[in-house]
Design brief:
The protein is α+β, with helices and mostly antiparallel strands and 485 residues long. The protein has 11 helices and 16 strands.
Length: 485
């Protein structure tokens, strides 16, 4: 009986909060926060100036990669197998606040406000001094940055306008190596994505600390380099593979929770209904978590940090168990096939400088352009035009997760997705009657809808029967007329 009462209240709470979202809360996702706007503007200006300085020449169209077209690998199995770490970065420690924030104690409050954009020391990927050495020593076919891998695999990501530089080199021994640089930031963001981008950078500033016995290394080249094998097995059992060197910049290592010394990714999750609880994790977010942890190294964990839409920290959700079970929602083969298709086509190109351009208006197409000193067009003009196109911002209501307790629930002593306690004493008999009435009304509604469905089916069957009868009569009349003639 109590289970039915709880389910009944949660059903009412869901309807009530959904209506409240439509009336008063949904515009929170459209709110423009001034210091975030200036942060994104600074980041965008830095990125645009970098692109102008490095890719301002003329380009000619080389190839269009269409991920809809069925190719020879469509029915094949693709695996991304981790081999080993070739070189490690000097990694800072992560000192997280308590898992649960005491909202009654203002001294424990953590805010992410007025963060300043700090331009990175950025050099082209082709100038990374470690990649050529590691490639030669470990027979690497493709060097790629993690950010580019994620963008190539996750083409469905909204507003995904990006430029990825590609350089192909052939040494004196006729050995070809592909360098796929980091995806260049475009600033083509919705309001939600602006806050997410801002928090992603500020989280590392807030919680990444250098221990006394640690020295800060040059951040310009402080990366991990991991060797992977991208293997394709077709239906006949024939195997093809590429040795891939993945470069990523680590977030840090945590010492506070077990298992200790785990490489950790700090990931923000913005809460737009904090006075009611945590919103459910969307499929889009799950894919982002999976890509960001799975392709760093197999032991990477996720620290999911929930932050209120006004940039105050709500709670750190340490998701070790969830990280181990993170998946691509059954789309891992689809993502890996996109990656293999892209890298396979790049390895077939000749020596030169190229760029991959993704237009969000054509999500499952990527255009490849080659640098050309003999004419062509200015690729940046197209890029800047695309950068000014409208950005979609979803306002769909995201339900509260009934399985997760957060500070507001403990403060009011309530379960998630339930109304706050009524100070008046509750009459269980009246509540039981209301639940029974609700279930009865629900059953009457379902029976009515089923009856209407059956009625429509009967009407359709009768119409089909009449049509068949008329057709038979027409056929008989036609034969009679034919015999008379």
């Amino acid at each position: 009986m109590y289970k039915e009462i709880i389910e009944h209240e949660r059903e009412i709470f869901k309807d009530w909060l959904s209506n409240l979202w439509e009336e008063n809360l949904k515009n929170r996702r459209l709110n423009s926060i001034p210091f975030i706007e200036s942060y994104i503007e600074s980041a965008c200006n830095f990125s645009n100036n970098y692109i102008k300085s490095q890719y301002s020449g003329t380009y000619s169209s080389k190839m269009k990669i269409d991920y809809y077209i069925k190719d020879e690998n469509e029915d094949s199995k693709v695996e991304m197998i981790y081999c080993k770490r070739l070189q490690s970065a000097k990694i800072n420690s992560i000192n997280l606040p308590p898992l649960e924030i005491d909202i009654k104690n203002l001294e424990t409050k953590v805010s992410f406000k007025d963060g300043m954009f700090d331009p990175p020391q950025k050099i082209p990927f082709k100038e990374d001094e470690h990649c050529p050495i590691l490639s030669k020593t470990h027979s690497i076919d493709v060097n790629i940055c993690l950010s580019s891998m994620k963008n190539i695999m996750n083409l469905e990501k909204p507003n995904s306008l990006w430029i990825i530089p590609v350089n192909i080199d052939i040494d004196i021994d006729e050995c070809k190596t592909v360098y796929v640089g980091g995806a260049l930031c475009t600033g083509h963001f919705s309001q939600q994505e602006k806050s997410w981008y801002y928090l992603r950078k500020e989280l590392k500033k807030k919680f990444r600390k250098t221990l006394p016995n640690e020295t800060v290394q040059n951040q310009c080249n402080n990366y991990n380099y991991d060797k992977w094998m991208l293997k394709v097995t077709d239906t006949n059992g024939t195997e093809k593979s590429l040795n891939v060197l993945v470069r990523n910049k680590p977030h840090g290592i945590q010492h506070q929770f077990k298992p200790q010394n785990s490489p950790t990714v700090l990931m923000p999750k913005i809460e737009y209904q904090p006075e009611f609880g945590f919103e459910k994790v969307s499929e889009e977010q799950l894919v982002e978590y999976w890509l960001d942890t799975n392709f760093r190294c197999p032991k990477t964990k996720l620290a999911l940090v929930s932050v209120q839409h006004n940039m105050d920290l709500m709670q750190v959700k340490w998701t070790i168990d969830e990280t181990e079970s993170l998946s691509s929602n059954g789309k891992d083969q689809e993502y890996l096939k996109r990656l293999y298709l892209t890298l396979d086509k790049l390895t077939q190109l000749g020596k030169g400088e190229y760029v991959l351009l993704h237009n969000p208006k054509k999500p499952f197409h990527v255009d490849l352009y080659q640098s050309s000193m003999y004419g062509g067009f200015n690729l940046l003009n197209m890029y800047f035009v695309l950068q000014q196109t409208d950005v979609s911002d979803s306002l769909v209501w995201n339900p509260i997760d009934s399985q997760v307790l957060c500070p507001i629930h403990k403060y009011f002593n309530i379960a998630p997705c339930m109304f706050r306690p009524n100070p008046e004493e509750l009459d269980i008999q009246i509540i039981t009657q209301q639940v029974n009435k609700y279930n009865k009304d629900k059953k009457v509604k379902e029976d009515y809808e089923n009856a209407q469905l059956q009625r429509k089916k009967r009407i359709k069957m009768e119409k089909n029967k009449i049509k068949r009868k008329l057709k038979r009569e027409s056929d008989i009349l036609y034969k009679v007329k034919s015999n008379i003639n």
